[in-house]
Design goal:
The chain is α/β, with parallel strands linked by helices. It is 33% helix and 19% strand. The strands form three sheets. The protein has a ten-stranded mixed sheet, with helices on both faces. The longest helix is centred in the last third of the chain and has 13 residues. It is elongated and about 70 Å long.
């Protein structure tokens, strides 16, 4: 009999488990404390639960945490971690997360899927196709199992996959990350990035208080559709209209991600249209230096063009920053390490 996994269960689910095993009612809270506060890796370590009750738990469940199977470190301190998924024993599917250190913060970029269905043309993951949705424990394990876990200041769901295409598991993960009985992180330390799948977006706004980042990448409809096929299903104008109906006056932050690609989306006419579309919306723009991926002809915009683009947006009242790519020497663009590992395993067969 395959054992169930405890890690990634919320407090209500843990209570159902302990009730079904006829364990004391307070055991669910004890399990949550051991997993999410004390950061253990085995049921045996739950020392305030009796040996008899630990044995009952171990008969039917395992913790379900695993350390990364591969780590790459960049000269700038960026680290990429590769994890096996629940299907990796049968199919070579992997996920990755990226640790990004900076002077005043330490950020972990999390994945929500193995592969992705969005097929964005500038994205390494999107060019691999879709494998499967990650379960809650697979999402949280990326945060839990890296050496820098306790020093992280920020989490961003900007890794492999589209979070709102896996909305149930992502919302459950956010609940555990931010609940007092869970990891007790402030929602203001977590940002979820999406291409703008409207049903998931609406649920996220209603059921979470975490920050939101929307992938824009072009303000022109046809050009955005060429770069991001989801534009045909959920046009950016509909996404912006939804966001304008939400009250952004509190501490919750809205940002738009915009990868600058030379000769594609970096002209002042693009910047001018951005200011027109986002007028009246309290937000910021994160301009991102394009990170090269194999077999794509895209080139990052030069510094002069990037600065002019930023200055135009800033002069028209939009808070705008340029984010430089990190970890280029270890191919830190999301999906490249997992893709390389999978191809290597297939060649060895």
């Amino acid at each position: 009999m395959q054992k169930g996994i405890l890690f990634g269960k919320n407090i209500e689910e843990l209570k159902q488990i302990t009730d079904s095993l006829h364990l004391p009612s307070y055991t669910a809270k004890q399990i949550a404390q051991w997993m999410y506060s004390k950061r253990i890796f085995s049921i045996e370590e739950m020392s305030n639960i009796s040996a008899q009750n630990r044995n009952i738990l171990e008969e039917f469940y395992e913790l379900g945490c695993q350390k990364p199977i591969q780590t790459q470190t960049s000269t700038d301190g960026t680290q990429k971690f590769l994890f096996e998924t629940s299907s990796s024993k049968h199919i070579e599917n992997y996920i990755e997360s990226v640790y990004i250190p900076a002077k005043e913060r330490a950020t972990l970029c999390l994945s929500s899927q193995s592969g992705c269905r969005m097929n964005c043309q500038f994205c390494a993951t999107g060019n691999q196709g879709f494998n499967h949705h990650l379960l809650v424990h697979e999402i949280l394990n990326q945060y839990y199992s890296i050496p820098q876990s306790k020093e992280l200041s920020n989490l961003v769901f900007m890794g492999m996959g589209e979070p709102f295409d896996n909305i149930d598991e992502v919302l459950n993960a956010l609940k555990i990350l931010t609940s007092e009985w869970g990891f007790a992180l402030s929602p203001r330390r977590i940002t979820v990035s999406s291409v703008g799948i409207l049903p998931g977006l609406k649920r996220f706004l209603e059921e979470s208080e975490c920050h939101l980042a929307i992938s824009l990448h072009s303000p022109f409809d046809q050009e955005r559709e060429d770069l991001m096929p989801i534009q045909k299903v959920y046009p950016i104008d509909e996404i912006i209209a939804c966001l304008k109906n939400y009250n952004w006056s509190g501490q919750r932050r809205l940002s738009f991600e915009y990868i600058l690609i030379q000769g594609v989306n970096d002209s002042l006419s693009h910047a001018r249209m951005i200011t027109k579309k986002l007028r009246g919306l309290q937000c910021r723009i994160n301009l991102i230096s394009y990170h090269h991926i194999p077999n794509k002809s895209f080139v990052k915009s030069d510094e002069e063009t990037s600065m002019a683009f930023r200055d135009f947006l800033s002069s028209h009242g939009l808070f705008c920053t340029i984010r430089q790519s990190k970890g280029e020497d270890i191919l830190a663009a999301c999906g490249l390490l997992a893709k390389t590992r999978k191809e290597s395993k297939n060649r060895d067969k």
